[in-house]
Amino acid sequence: MTGPLDQLIHQQWWAAVATVCRLTGDLDAAEDAVQDACVAALERWPAAGVPDNVLGWLIGVARHKAVDRLRREANRGAKEAAAMREISDSGTGAGARAWAEAGAEVRAGTWAGAGAEAGAGAGAEAEAGAGAGEDGSPRATDRLGLMFLCCHPALDVSARVALTLRSVCGLSTAEIAAAFLVPDETMAKRLVRAKAKIREARIPFRIPGEAELPERLGAVLRVIYLLFTEGHMASRGEALIRGELCDRAIALARGVAELLPGEPEAAGLLALLLLTDARRAARTDDLGDLVLLEDQDRGRWDPDMIAEGEAVLEAALGQGRPGRYQLHAAIAACHSTAASADGTDWRQIALLYAELVRHEPTPVVEANRGVAVAMAEGPAAGLVILDALAHHPQLRRWAQLYIARAELLRRLGRDDEATDAYRSALELEPAPASRSFIARRLRELGGNGSAN
Amino acid sequence: MKYMLLLNRTADALPAPGTPELDRIIQEYGAAVEAMGRAGVLIDCAPLAALSSTTTVRVRDGETIVTDGPSAEIKEQLGGYSIIECADLDEALKWAATIPAARDASVEIRPIVGMPAPA
After folding, report:
1. Which residues of chain A does B33 touch, with a Cβ-Cβ cutoff of 8 Å?
2. Dihedral angle at the C-alpha atoms of A225, A230, A232, A234, nearest 10 degrees?
3. What's this model's pTM, rounded to 2 decimal places?
4. CA A441/CA A243 separation, integer angstroms
5. Model pLDDT for residues A58-80, shown as the tens digit of each residue
């Protein structure tokens, strides 16, 4: 993606794939067809000029291509089914016919039947109109439908994240593989498997009803949050920040928040991501090492992002239905508004964490509350909370808890215990940035710092 | 007395379309079920889609928990079956969550391949 034309086309990817997917009922066909339509646009538009309705053009072309493909597949399936039926007609047993038809369907690709229905209907319309008739125009809910499809709880979480990057964001398989540091082939398999499950299990393209919405929206927001943290923490990468993933996650959160204005948690997530990403430039030093929040140069925080994040958060909280993302964002806002690390309102943060524990009762949130209490009331008070979590099965392999304990022990002057805790953290093989931070602390504590 | 025969296989997916392996499977299974049909003992049969297309539903404290893949709980065992016809997986999930087994253990939803349309 380089030129302005590329960008113009790419901005429409989400909406184009979504509408073509709804029209044809096949995600894979929709995605391939939109890809082809984008290539065609790049070939034609420099000479022919950019059409007034970029999205309408892409949808019209892509829909034709997708319908063609599905019709070809359906014809193949129908011919084989007819041939198999002849073979089994001598038997006339219902079971034999079922097996024969099953065989034909397997030959043609398992969803050939469903594709045929959708394809035939859409094809007739495409021929009657110019391909952008009333039913061919995008609907406001299409983009949400695609998001809910890619983030369906019946898909494995890693598949949801990969599929969202591919189908909603339009990243190539190679780009996604690079972002998650897995071989291209592994990522390609993951995507193929996810699409096969959508087809075979018939996961629908639809907006969940009111009763399902909270849970299903939660799954969507979680995928966006995972995407962001993957870019932000880069636990498996050498580079601390893979900005591309953060940018994509913010664009998705913005889209979902705009499409669901009545769901404050969607806006809460957008606010959280904006407030967190505003610190991107200050999070690493020149060597690429992690800089703790308290040591960050606040002059390098992005004031526009902070202002937008605070405005979005305020509007969300105004709806009077707090939730985990709004509370996380409110905590992030406490940091953003403090002029200095010393000026942070830790009492307020500790209170927000206490509220957050009610919405998100996990030991990790409780550990964060412990850190906030330590800042508000002193390291001893925080250590009581962290020590209570020390043997929690979910936290046994969580290096951050050991690092947090080590920090509090260090502040209390209990250097030997602090050194032990830092070493325990190192044994859990934390991210490279955390490793070099721990090594520095160990050197400061004067022990034999090269514990690795 | 009705009996449910559980047909196990060693590979997750059926052989690739157009291969002699798949043709042989279709012929052999076709012959077996045809004989059962002629003898009047066959009520219904169909192959299942690949295990990787399975979804598992659990209901805990009134909340429906949906996961990808079969149940990995070794304490659970097959105790019955239902065959339902639904428009899509969301509808199937809704019905699966109403079965008591979803509360006590889990319900696996496995698509059935190529059932002929009900007459």
Report:
1. 93, 95-96, 98-99
2. 160
3. 0.81
4. 28
5. 999 999 999 999 999 888 777 66
